[in-house]
Structure formats: structure tokens, C-alpha cells
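**Sequence, C-alpha cells**
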Amino acid sequence: MSRKSSRREFLGAVTMAAGAYIARPALLQAQQAPAGRAAVAICPEYNRQVVDSLSTMFEQLGGLGKLVRGKTVAIKLNLTGSATVRLGYLPPEITTWPHPQVIWALVHLLGRAGAQRIRLLESPWATTEPLQQFMIYAGWQPKEFENAARLVEFENTNYLGSGKTYARFMVPNGGLLFTGYDLNHSYRDCDVFISLAKLKEHRTTGITLSMKNCFGMTPCTIYSGFAPEDEPGLVPKGGRDLFHFGNRQPPKSAPPAVNLKWGSSLNTVDSRYCGSRV
């Protein structure tokens, strides 16, 4: 006998499963993480209710103003894969991408809270084209995001982009996979960082949430199997083979891998630089 589950039941089941998994410190070698606030809301339709729901949740978390007022806010989107790929005839925002209404609402609320600059970031598949063009291929209107707040910028972070050099993020205590990562400057040149993921299944990690979304921060000019041996490529090619297969080192200009014996089970970025092991 089967029955449909509500979103609330689904979120509850996911939370219980995650809690049970995290509760095994001997297996995960997890460090004690500080407790943090969380907010959950039900929003039946992608319309004006999204703004109201997000606004309420931000208030429950302590408000946006004190966090973003006068600051540069970077939003890592979750526009995975090609802009023209479809599940059946459904648009990507219904299946694998965050909905434009959610993105617009977030940008609008950040601007209303006093953010000085809001930057939409993503690493589009194998291209150096502007992020706005990638969105247009999917049938989106990036001008709507631009008009949602006073100063909204876009950047393709799958290569050097508008920066002169890559920004280096070293992993505390040496790292488990890499000693550090070279990323687009946008992830350094911000005061507040937001990972805006689409809650969905993933065939290797099981589920995509905010941490898995950060996998896409790594530029394929460095972490692709097509990257040159010495320096980053000029154009991103292919996917992030170094993480999926662990069959080679990144270019010599980037921090090296600690261990190349990962096999195909390596599916996420070493997140110890965030303060805990995952």
C-alpha cells in the first residue's frame, strides 16, 4: 500500500535521517558543531507568497539588516548542467534549478535590508559566456533580477572571469582531499556568502543542499580532466573529473591534492575550511 507524503513529512524524515547519521561520531570523526538557528516554511505556489515566506523566515533567524546592510552579498546559484537540458518538457526551475521567483525574492529582500551590492554567481557548463546569457538560454529574464535591488551584478565563476588572479582558500590543518582550492575572485570579494540550492535528489551524494551546491564553486579551468598541467586553462572544458575520479593532480599552479586514491566515491568538496568535517 502506498500513499503520498506531504512536504512537512518529507522534511521531517530527512531531518531525522540526517540526525541519525550525524549521531555516529565514531564513524564520521565529527567535531562538535555549534548549534544554529533554522527556519522552515510551506509556500504552495511560486508567487508573491515567496517574498512573504522568506521575509518571515529571515525575521525568525534574527533579521537580514544587521547581516547585510552596507555589504557585498554573493549568492551561489544552483544552475546545474546545461541550460537546454529538460526532464520531459518541464522547465529547469521546476526540476533542478532554483525557481526565478525564489531568486528574485531573495535579491529583493537583501536590497530592502540595505545590501550595498548583490552578486549572482554560478559556473555554467563549459562556457565563458556571461551568466546572463546562460539564463536566457533557459528562457529566463535576468533583467528581472537586476531590477530587484539597487545594484545587482552577475559573474560566470567557471573561469577567471573579471578577476586578474584566482583567489586561494587554504584548508586548515592540511585538508583531507586538497591542501587548498583556487576559486574565482567573487568568492573572496564579498562580505556575506549565500548558497541558494535546489532541494533535489542526486545520484551520487543522495541529496543536493547548500553544501553540495558549493561543489560548483570550483572552476573547470583548474579542476577538469582537460585542465593543463602547469597553469589554469583559459576556457572551462568538461566536468570536475578531479573530484569524481581522482585520477590526476590539478595544474601545478594550484594547491595539490593530498590523496589521489579516491576512486569514484569522491563526490564533494573537502569542507573542512568551513570549520568542520563533512
Notes: The radius of gyration is 19 Å. The longest strand covers residues 117-122. The chain has a mean pLDDT of 85. Residues 7-22 form the longest helix (16 residues).
